[in-house]
Structures
1.
Amino acid sequence: EMETLNDTVGRYLRSPVITLLGFLRAFLEDNSKDLDESGREHLARALKNAETLKRNLEDLVDFTEISLRKMDKDILELKSVAKSVVRDLTYSSSDNLRVEVGLLPSSCADTAMIRKVFECLISNAIKSTFGKKDPSIAVGGYLRDSENVYYVKDNGISFDPGYSDKLFLPFRKLHPDEQFPGTGIGLAIVKKIVDRHGGRVWAEANKEEGATFYFSLPVKGPTECGG
């Protein structure tokens, strides 16, 4: 069913939307001078909604592919992965953004999938701190009982703790696009990846401002890791 959904979205839904986008852009470019203000506004709104639909479909494909992709687990140095993601994502970010990467225990994981987890969480944290005077993000982890726990903490936009159970559902957004751009699929992808690793995800709203997102991975030795 997941393969059928992925094929249907990728082949039969995304292609017509891309074609529609092309026509709308061409029409707007060729005819904007002949349209009145109301006409240009309606066309711009249609173009914006078509672009949103395209992003939603692409994110839905990403979400279903996570369920289908074969995992290649190995003992992974998560601190190296997190630091690499930070370098990539903060290359063009605010000069005063402070990102600290602390201790992150090694764990049994698929490199590409866990990198995707950090990309989603750190990217969300960066978006959350836009406009802050002193934006800061902390990435870290620790061992607790039989699991390694990792977190991404920021001092940006927080959320209502009463809605924490909805954060990781596909296309569920707690903030408007103007405040927090995106389709709302990133955290659902995080949960799907962590679920496949046998871990957990959760989030906490900080008392003053910002939020902390957590995920855990089971502790496994080299002989147990794989598959």
2.
Amino acid sequence: IYNIQHIDEANFGFLTGKRAFNEALTRTLLTAMPAHAPAAARFLEKVKNRPDWESNPKINAKAKEIIIYSFVGPIGIQLSKLMAIGKTPLSEKKQKDYLGKCLHIAEYTLDLLCFTLLSRLWDRQKQAPTDLPTDLYQTISARLDYDQTTELNLPSQFRLLVALYRYYLAEDQDVPLPELNAQDEQLSADSSLHTTIKELEALGQKLHQEQYTLLDCHAAEAALGQLLGTFAFLCGYKMASVHEIGYREVRNSDPRFIHRYTALGIDSKAQKDAEKLLYVPDTSYTDAVMLFRGDHYRTGINLFPFVVDLNALSFEHGAMISFFKSKRFEDDNLVYHILESNQGRILEHQGILGAHTAYEDILMDNEKRKQLNQDVVLACFQQARDTILNDEFEL
């Protein structure tokens, strides 16, 4: 292997067991999904007599489709992008894009898990404030106060996930994602998953230094498969972005709330981030990104302000889901990472929100409402950070 001077798609297949891009990932994920995705279970039953099904283009295409619409919201969309890159002709750009997308998906997955546990911890700390153990305090503070002057990497994200999970167990509290309990062995510093995450980080360094090879794409695909396979329970969750709640009560009739929301991800009918309405007797959070099981997001976990929909904040159609990335060192404004474009967006303090905010005037002006929404994100983030850490918060 090491004597081969030039690796092309032909000998790449030989070196990796004659598997094309995405084939190993497709098999790994489908095999891990049946308990959480009925479509995957039905698929595997149908192909049980086809040991090489992932090499059949037609069957493989159906398998990829199931993976894409089964995985939760933004992760499913990112997997669709990875699958699309895998089908393009071999080139230097393909290798770079494929390796980069594998790393992005790993990062987003760990962030989604961490933000879910942090969001529920915020709710708990608000109800019953308590001082966190020193190690956990420092780990959470390092993430929420991250200003890009220090290193944020996949192992540090994994350490935060493990620390949060272990804290819930130590406090005898229900883990917000109960499926994590089945992965208890992997959520430790000496697990095979931790080793895989360190391998992904090393591949990221190769990408940054432009010292990667075609075989690194195969290594990244295998590592991503193990990571997503471990957290395949995310196929049992959905996400929604709640844009607006209206109210309707006709005389002598029961009141109803009108929810305008976006169902995040790609569904089985190939609809991406479909906009929908609910006409129900219950209200919900607004400007919220919800993670939930079943059909009703109203009982889910609100990920705001760690995860925001920039389109909801600016009254645009569709969704632009963004994850908190960092604080700016110079002014404490927040940087969010837009998943769709892999670009950063700075949310700046607008000076609209305060103790004496004149909502009646602001809500009449759309531009001021957009500014207010930015201030609300920054204020909620600071409140979440200080409540979780049990530090003093001032608006």
